[in-house]
From TrEMBL:
Transmembrane residue ranges: 262-283
GO molecular function terms attached to this record: transferase activity
Organism listed in the record: Aphanothece hegewaldii CCALA 016
Protein name from the UniProt record: Glycosyl transferase
UniProt keyword terms in alphabetical order: Membrane, Transferase, Transmembrane, Transmembrane helix
Domain Glycosyltransferase 2-like: 7-168
Highest taxon listed in the record's lineage: Bacteria
Pfam name, any one: Glycos_transf_2
KW Transmembrane helix (keyword) present: yes
Keyword ATP-binding assigned: no
Signal peptide range in chain numbering: none
Amino acid sequence: MEFIDFSIIIATYNRPIQLTSCLEALTQIDYREFEVIVVDDGSSESLQPIILPFQSRLKLTLIEQKNQGPAAARNAGAKIATGDYIVFTDDDCIPQSTWLTALAKSLQVNPNNLVGGKILNALPDNPYASTSQGIIDVVYDYYHTVSKPLRFFASNNFALSREAFNDLGGFNETFWASEDREFCDRWLQAGYSLTYIPEAIIFHAHDLNLSSFWQQHFNYGRGAYRFYQIRAKRGSEGLKVEPQFYRNLVLYPFSFPSVNQFFVSFWLNLFIAQLANLFGYFWEKRQFITKKSKLFY
C-alpha cells in the first residue's frame, strides 16, 4: 500500500499544559513519519519553552499569530503543510498510538474522502465535558447508523487531502465555532464523501466549567445561524428537524450500564446547552440584522 504523508495541525490558545500532553502523545505514535504544525493563536505566554523539548523528538514547526480564532489558525497551519494529507486535532486531545495508522488505512482505500475518527471523553468526572462529548456521541451514532449519509466530523479528529482542502478554501474564518460543520457541509456539496473510522481514537480532555460550557454552546448557536445563512445563500435545501435525533439525545444516559448521578447532570446540562445554543443563535441573528440595517443609512 502507498505510504500516506501526513501533516498534523494543532491550533492552540493559552493551554500550554494541555499542549504538552498532546505533543507527548504524538511522540508515541506508531506511524513511521509525519510532521506536526502547532499554530499559536495569540497566547499570552510564549510557547517556545513548550515546543523546544519536543523538536528533537518530532518534526515540529511553530507558527505564531494574533488571535484570529481556530478556523484562521487551522488555515495558517494548512498553508505551510508539506504532507499530501492534513490531520486536524486540538491541543487538549490525546491521540492514541495507532491513530494515524487507522486514518491511513482508510485513506489508502478512499483517498478522496474526508475521514473522521472516534472521540472519547478523557474527563468522565467533569459533568460539562461529559455532556458535551455525549452530544457528539449521539450525533456520530445517529448519522452513522440512522440518518445516512454522514454530515459532520468535529475538527479535533479528521484527515483529508491537503489539495482538496485548499481547493475548497479551507475553513470559513468568519466562524469562531462550528467552522467544522460548515466545512463538512461544503465538502459534501462539492461531491466528496465522509468516512467514519472508529479505530482512529483520540481522548478529549476539555476541562469545562459552567461558564465555559455556556460559552461553548452559545458560540455553537452563533455558528448555527451563520451556517443556515450560508446554506440559504447558495440555495441548499433546508435542514429538516429530525425528532428521532432529539429522542436519542434525551435517551443517551440509558446507554450506560447503571443509573447514577450522570443521568440528572446530563439532562440538566443538556437543557443549559440547548438554552445557550438558542441565545447564541438569536444573538447572532440580531447582529446580522443590525449590521444589514446600517447599510441603508
